[in-house]
Design goal:
The complex is a heterodimer of chains A (326) and B (258).
Chain A lengths: L2 H10 L1 H19 L6 H26 L7 H17 L5 H26 L3 H20 L12 H7 L1 E4 L2 E4 L1 H18 L1 H11 L1 H6 L4 H27 L10 H11 L11 H21 L6 H25 L1
Antiparallel strand pairs in A: 1-2
Chain B lengths: L1 E12 L2 E12 L3 E5 L6 H8 L7 E6 L2 E3 L4 H6 L2 E5 L10 H5 L19 H15 L16 H14 L4 E5 L7 H16 L3 E5 L3 H7 L2 E6 L2 E7 L5 H9 L4 H9 L1
Parallel strand pairs in B: 3-8, 3-9, 6-7, 7-8
Antiparallel strand pairs in B: 1-2, 1-4, 4-5, 9-10
The structure holds adenosine-5'-triphosphate (ATP) and magnesium ion.
Chain lengths: 326, 258
């Protein structure tokens, strides 16, 4: 492909237009409030970013394969509740408790995947039910109360939620997790055989199956990966704030899906972009943070967030139409 | 030389007996047209051969050897490539990626599904293949399949089947929805494929196409093979009457008398 053509297709790509909008948004917020780019505020944004961002990586792969998962927010809440309860009330070793949390997430993802692929119920219905089951379980085992605060620093806490300073910026190790997992996801989707399969399954499942691609197995593993990433994000969050609550992560599923589609991944499958998802995660984080600084009243946040997401989707749709015409 | 033999295949979906004792032989370098009305069982037959689902009963022989086909992968490994009109390509993938879907060239193969695609090799092989099949318009191996016409897609699917040197190429209604020129392209392909020594099983509702490319005609009705004829020994009206099962002998006599 000639360089000029490659460049123009990059500019027309959805992740690129999202990126431009991100830059514009950042500029607007920076001008509107000088504190937006202050070390403290950037550190704040970077502390939150990985938690939803990590889930969004899994969701991107899942959406690319043509499925999605509404139970991620509930898993985000349940995993740390189970782990911390085991340690605090059951006297279990933290390593063992984390193992149990991992197995739990794998089981939830596997059940989602098996029902979707083997019984053939849409992932919307299956994972919506799972959301209720998982959230309900978290509420029941805690009787609805947050756990008592976590007071056991140690290897795993440092590994997932340790913090360090670079100049006047304060970063958490979770940022490394996000960066590492992002690079891995980019590799998988664009360069690995598995990514070819994922895109093909989402684009035309029957075609992929006819070529011998194990579509069901790939989907089941993607459901598992998404669940595990949601649990990991939940642990990171709980360790960072030293507390687990049964209602943590409520509504995250929609926020994560918004990040992914705002980045340019198609809700209908086949077309996924991890770079776009990273841009989308940054964008939603910046919006949530920026509109506070700009002085939008707290109760009006979601109006703005919703409108900006809608505007992004309209833009993608128009670009898509344009690309199809040319 | 016999390439594929189906013996007494049976397949039911619940109470629907889609295949009742279907037997068929395909020889090297011949085009066999599989005809029959809607619901006759043609697609069911080829799905059984291509590993989409197992048969309830019956045997499949490839080059005289009894085989069991349990998955699409099994069929491909036996050299049976199937092309479905609407389900053979992934539109969001590039031509190159489609051509090698399921058989991607990789480096570090021990990484399994995590192995990186050998993109250079992929692209090179794809453009060579595109050149070889001589698609009229110059196609870029990196172009997305969604930007291609129906006929171009069909040509890509057929060239993919050729590329893996399949012994048997099965086409299920390949000229459906295609324009005149594209239809000719596909028919020309079928002849080229046969001349290259492959065997072709062609399903179509267009009897005119059959007379242009097929060597033999097999007719199915209600899950059974009801007739088998060489193209040279029959004519359009006869074939039509066999397909519908209507007694057209009187009509035929009348037509011939004219
Ligand atoms: N998956 C299935 N489940 C249930 N019944 C099926 C299934 N597939 C096919 N059938 C039935 O089996 C019979 C044969 O169908 P098949 O698709 O093989 O017909 P066909 O000859 O390909 O017809 P057409 O020319 O319309 O494509 C039909 O009665 C059909 O309804
Ligand atoms: Mg059919």
């Amino acid at each position: 492909m000639p360089v000029g053509k490659r460049r123009s297709s990059l500019i027309r790509s959805p992740q690129f237009s999202s990126f431009i909008i991100l830059v514009v948004l950042l500029a607007v917020f920076a001008v509107a409030d000088a504190n937006f780019l202050s070390p403290l505020n950037i550190s704040n944004m970077m502390a939150f970013l990985p938690e939803l961002g990590i889930i969004a990586l899994g969701m991107t792969l899942l959406l690319t394969a043509g499925e999605f998962d509404l139970s991620v927010g509930a898993v985000f809440g349940l995993a740390p509740v189970v782990v911390m309860l085991l340690v605090q009330n059951g006297g279990v070793d933290i390593g063992v408790a984390l193992m149990a949390g991992l197995v739990l997430c794998i089981a939830i993802g596997a059940i989602n995947g098996l029902i979707v692929t083997k019984i053939g119920i849409s992932s919307f219905l299956v994972t919506l039910s799972m959301l209720l089951v998982v959230r309900g379980a978290a509420l029941y085992i805690t009787q609805g109360f947050p756990l008592k605060s976590w007071d056991q620093p140690g290897f795993f806490v440092t590994l997932l939620a340790g913090s360090f300073n670079i100049g006047s910026f304060r970063f958490y190790t979770s940022l490394w997790w996000f960066i590492g997992l992002s690079l891995f996801a980019i590799y998988i989707l664009r360069y690995a055989k598995l990514g070819n399969w994922i895109s093909a399954i989402g684009s035309n499942r029957n075609a992929a199956v006819a070529r011998g691609v194990p579509a069901d197995a790939v989907k089941i593993w993607l459901f598992i990966a998404t669940s595990v990433l949601a649990g990991l994000a939940g642990m990171i969050s709980a360790f960072r704030i030293s507390a687990a609550s049964p209602v943590a992560g409520t509504g995250y599923e929609l926020e994560v899906i918004a990040m992914v589609v705002v980045g340019g991944t198609a809700l209908t499958g086949g077309r996924g972009t991890i770079l776009g998802t990273i841009v989308g995660a940054l964008m939603l984080r910046a919006i949530r943070n920026g509109i506070v600084l700009v002085g939008v009243p707290g109760l009006a946040y979601n109006i703005f967030v919703g409108l900006i997401i809608l505007a992004m989707l309209i833009l993608h749709a128009l670009l898509q139409k344009n690309a199809a015409r040319s | 030389m016999e390439v594929l033999r189906l013996q007494n295949l049976q397949k039911s979906f619940g109470s629907v007996r889609a295949l009742k004792n279907a037997s068929l032989t395909l020889r090297e370098g011949e085009v066999v047209a599989l005809l029959g009305d809607n619901g006759a069982g043609k697609s069911t037959l080829i799905k059984a051969i291509s590993g989409v689902f197992p048969v309830d009963r019956g045997d499949i022989f490839v080059r005289g050897e009894k085989v069991s086909i349990r998955s699409t992968r099994d069929a491909m490994d036996l050299g049976i490539e199937t092309i479905h009109q609407d389900t053979s390509l992934a539109p969001d993938l590039s031509i190159a990626r489609n051509l090698f879907l399921g058989r991607e060239p990789v480096s570090f193969g021990w990484l399994g599904v995590f192995a990186p695609l050998d993109l250079a090799k992929l692209r090179k092989a794809a453009s060579e293949l595109l050149k070889r099949v001589g698609i009229s318009k110059k196609l870029d191996a990196d172009a997305l399949v969604s930007t291609l016409s129906g006929g171009e897609r069909q040509s890509i699917a057929i060239s993919r089947a050729m590329q893996f040197a399949a012994k048997v190429i099965i086409l299920d209604e390949p000229t459906n929805n295609l324009g005149v020129e594209e239809t000719h392209g596909v028919l020309r392909f079928v002849k080229e494929v046969r001349d290259a020594g492959h065997s072709v099983l062609l399903i179509t509702h267009n009897i005119h196409h059959v007379f242009q490319v097929a060597d033999r005609i097999v007719v199915m009705r209600r899950g059974e093979i009801v007739a088998e004829q060489t193209v040279a020994d029959t004519d359009l009206l006869t074939v039509e009457s066999i397909i519908t099962g209507a007694d057209m002998s009187a009509l035929l006599k009348e037509a011939r008398a004219k």
